[in-house]
């Protein structure tokens, strides 16, 4: 049975509190799962929080001891690109950060807490980035499926066919290919780790909690029942005016969830934790912005329920 855990973002105290709440006990650098259980981490272990090294130590130790599994979040993917030179732009990385462009400044700021805690270019930094490459882009465990931002069968197949699947590390050739703008591999990687986004009309943008402007809005494409944009647009509080008057595109790519339940993170939900549907739960409830770190205690059920959600209530 699995305990699926949402985005941690360096919040080591919340991670330790949640694991204790779930009945895990300290063991070496990590924690030992209750008999018959295993943790599944949904990625985004790093950036933002004050305890990023400790979070990484806990998760890696648990994985090494067979107590946990973990998939790659967009922040781990970005951390790899942050240090890997772009073969098409000598002197710059796949995730730009060396110049003085708006994008480079944004990327340095977003990754700054991790860099300052680990030490840019240090042996520890190199080692953690190498470990990030081992994390799979998704997991299909039979009874459940896990992707960081969105489950999509076509995206899974595209990455599988290219050779990036659980058990195979992300090599340089695939890393470069998944950064090629407009390619099938880039679209598949983005679908799983960043979700579905809709470009906003000129002059409109979403401003996040750190003041960064995003010219796309995230869409909850699993809400196949939706008939209006506001029902699927994942807009931070105070930014609702940016989608006012916009219609749901006629070709909106809904992805109904059938089969085994799906678990995702990534989307910074707010309010009392709850599942999205009987087949999908988002477990990112903004742990790095004052919200709880949330888990789902899965015991083999084919349909999900709110009473299986768990978090430390203090």
From TrEMBL:
Organism of derivation: Achromobacter ruhlandii
InterPro entries: Ap4A_hydrolase, Calcineurin-like_PHP, Metallo-depent_PP-like
Protein name: Calcineurin-like phosphoesterase domain-containing protein
Region spans: Disordered: 88-110
Signal peptide per UniProt: none
Highest taxon of source: Bacteria
Basic and acidic residues composition bias: residue spans: 88-104
Pfam family, one: Metallophos
Residue ranges annotated for the Calcineurin-like phosphoesterase domain, each copy included: 4-99
């Amino acid at each position: 049975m699995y305990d699926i855990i949402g985005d941690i973002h360096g919040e080591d105290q919340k991670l330790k509190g949640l694991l204790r709440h779930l009945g895990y006990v300290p063991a070496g650098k990590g924690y030992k799962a209750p008999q018959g259980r295993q943790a599944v981490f949904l990625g985004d272990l790093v950036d933002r929080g004050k305890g990023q090294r400790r979070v990484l130590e806990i998760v890696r130790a648990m994985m090494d001891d067979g107590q946990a599994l973990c998939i790659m979040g967009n922040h781990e993917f970005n951390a790899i690109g942050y240090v890997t030179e772009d073969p098409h732009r000598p002197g710059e990385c796949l995730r730009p950060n060396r110049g003085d462009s708006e994008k480079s400044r944004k990327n340095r700021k977003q990754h700054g807490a991790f860099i300052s805690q680990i030490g840019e270019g240090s042996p520890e930094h190199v080692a953690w980035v190498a470990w990030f490459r081992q994390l799979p882009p998704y997991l299909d465990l039979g009874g459940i499926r896990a992707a960081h931002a969105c489950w999509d069968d076509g995206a899974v197949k595209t990455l599988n066919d290219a050779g990036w699947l659980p058990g195979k590390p992300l090599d340089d050739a695939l890393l470069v290919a998944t950064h090629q703008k407009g390619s099938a591999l880039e679209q598949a990687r983005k679908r799983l780790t960043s979700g579905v986004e809709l470009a906003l009309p000129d002059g409109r943008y979403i401003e996040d909690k750190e003041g960064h402007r995003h010219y796309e809005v995230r869409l909850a494409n699993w809400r196949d029942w939706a008939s209006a944009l506001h029902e699927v647009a994942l807009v931070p509080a105070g930014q609702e005016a940016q989608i006012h008057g916009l219609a749901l595109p006629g070709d909106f790519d809904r992805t109904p969830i059938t089969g085994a339940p799906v678990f995702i993170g990534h989307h910074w939900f707010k309010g009392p934790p709850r599942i999205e549907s009987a087949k999908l739960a988002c477990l990112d409830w903004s742990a790095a912005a004052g919200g709880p770190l949330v888990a789902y205690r899965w015991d083999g059920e084919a349909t999900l329920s709110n009473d299986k959600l768990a978090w430390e209530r203090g």
